[in-house]
Design a protein that fits this description.
This protein is of the alpha+beta class.
């Protein structure tokens, strides 16, 4: 047994023989890639896509605009048309005196065929309501008719 032990001791003293020894491996990087390594290509891709989109949008709108201008030019050359500005409908003038002195002040009308209302001296009134010594008889689009205690009608209109 001593022969075996002696052989093992000698084998430990002799460096091992390797036929083709390879250089040692480099350690693996454990750091994650930096932000700039992926952020810059993403920004460039977004800029390229947005440039393509806006270029197409401009070309499309230019083509539509050119078509509209061409259609207007053809229409103008075929038959001259006189452009008449729209006429604003005139408000019908109420008959009788409007806003007599010492009468309440009409501040606004909220006209609806089913539920008209008005603001007179800061109070909201509707047809049939009592207001001071007056009773609201009628609310139209432009006037409010009040009936006084002497059965005299007063028409209030908005100050224009």
């Amino acid at each position: 047994m001593s022969l075996i032990n002696d052989a093992l001791k000698q084998a430990r003293k002799v460096p091992p023989r390797t036929p083709n020894s390879l250089p040692p491996l480099r350690p693996v990087d454990t750091e994650p890639p930096s932000v700039s390594s992926w952020l810059i290509p993403v920004i460039i891709a977004i800029l390229i896509l947005s440039a393509i989109f806006f270029t197409g949008w401009i070309i499309a709108h230019r083509a539509v605009g050119d078509a509209v201008i061409e259609a207007d030019a053809q229409a103008a050359s075929q038959s001259p048309v006189e452009v008449i500005p729209p006429v604003k409908p005139a408000m019908p003038e109420p008959t009788g005196p409007l806003n007599p002195p010492d009468s309440p002040v009409l501040q606004g009308i909220f006209y609806s065929p089913t539920a008209p209302s008005a603001i007179v001296d800061g109070k909201t009134v509707r047809p049939g309501d009592a207001f001071r010594q007056y009773k609201v008889k009628e609310i139209s689009k432009f006037t409010v008719t009040l009936v006084g205690p002497d059965k005299k009608e007063i028409k209030l209109g908005l100050n224009r």
